[in-house]
Amino acid sequence: MPYKVLVIPGDGVGPEVVEAALYVIKAAASKYGVDLEIKTAEAGDAALRKYGTAMPPEALKLADEADVIFKGPIGESAYDVTSLIRMRYLLYANIRPVKNLPGVPAVKEIDCIFVRENVEDVYVGAEYRVGDVAIALKVITEKGTRRVARVARKYAEMRGRRVTIIHKANVLRVVDAFFRDVAMEELRGLEVDQMYVDAAAMELVRNPKRFDVVLTTNQYGDILTDLAAQVAGGIGLAPSGNIGDSKAMFEPVHGAAFDIAGKGIANPIATILSAAMMFEWMGRKDVANAIIVAVEKSIEKGIKTPDIGGDKSTIEVGKFIASII
Ligand code: IPM
Ligand code: MN
After folding, report:
1. 226 alpha-carbon distance from chain centroid
2. In a mutational test of the pocket of ligand 1, which residue from 121, 222, 227 has the highest number of ligand atoms less than 8 Å from its CB?
3. Which end of the chain is less crowded, N or C, counting CB atoms within 10 A of the terminal residue's CB?
4. What is the pLDDT of residues 139-155, one digit of tens each?
């Protein structure tokens, strides 16, 4: 049975980086014998203009049928597509590894993995405007915290290292304290510490090596993973996986970057490394590793986009990596 992969190219630089990654995905699948059935769906700003909805019924149907979704960044309607997919399929853990790549200038040395809760917090979309007051609800549940903490536990056990829980329980004395306490309980027996999110932002720049597995709530995870990606060498390199119990979605951490769209200069590595994560999720760590090695080789050989000091185009990088896989 093939894996049913739904590709959503997205907006801005999305179609370019996804096209580049597809060269790699197809080359890897054929070389390593992974049976993929790839379909494509329109979703995002362009779909909104064309069909009046960012996630048209056809895209939804294909997403329902797929085993896994491979998605580029989306523009203004990103929340409508990305959060919808995360919530509809209960992709409750957002896995964001942050690691330097050899030969890429970085702010600091860093090697950690963020486990970001992915379906709760202010992302539930419970916002209200009552006259001159606006309110957003931050929702944290015991069940939601336990299941994402179990994912952090798995990574900590795999890496044999510490989990840092990030929160702001000194202000959110009920909500964030609940997340922290439930997570602590679920992580019992492991080496665990905790940090306020503001201090964590500082530490990620000052001493990023102190972090290993980082467990945090949805919004803090959103913000800190952009910061951490920049510390590691740039947002153009940062992959992610949205994982549930039976389905998953892989996508770069970065956004649609309309300012450079269509110029062929967007770095496809974040998307290509997201493809590596997809193969790992399929149980093919060998294929994931082969992609990572090919990415490192392409950088070493100078086949890289301008953001990391090269002069190659998005597609040239994708094709090169595909050719040496
Ligand atoms: C991310 C993105 C999304 C988020 C947006 C596009 C809804 O920034 O995946 O980090 O905030 O989660
Ligand atoms: Mn984000």
Report:
1. 10
2. 222
3. N
4. 999 999 999 999 999 99
Class of the CATH domain delimited by 1-99+235-325? alpha beta
Q: Are both 1-99+235-325 and 107-232 of the same fold?
A: yes
Give SS3 for 154: helix
- Nearest residue CA, atom 7 of ligand 1? 79
Nearest ligand, CA 119 = 1
Q: What tens digit of pLDDT does each residue of 249-266 get?
A: 999 999 999 999 999 999
E-strand ranges in 74-229 read 93-99, 111-117, 127-130, 133-136, 163-167, 192-196, 213-216
Q: What is this structure's pTM? A: 0.97
19 lines ligand 1 (CB under 6 A): no
φ, ψ dihedrals at 257, nearest 5°: 45, 60
Give distance in angstroms: CA of 323 to centre of ligand 1.
32
Domain boundaries, the chain: 1-99+235-325, 107-232
Q: Does domain 107-232 have CATH number 3.40.718.10?
A: yes
